[in-house]
Design goal:
Length: 42
């Protein structure tokens, strides 16, 4: 994941903003997935 962000040629502040925005989104989507798995198989 970090390799993909690091491979893009963009200013450092833009890369940092992309990282800061994408990490919480991925975290929230993983929580939703985990809740679904627990409810479906719980």
């Amino acid at each position: 994941f970090m390799g993909l962000i690091g491979a893009v040629r963009a200013p450092l502040n833009r890369l940092a903003m992309a990282f800061i925005v994408s990490v919480p989104v991925i975290y929230i989507l993983n929580l939703i997935r985990d809740i679904f798995v627990v409810v479906a198989y719980g």
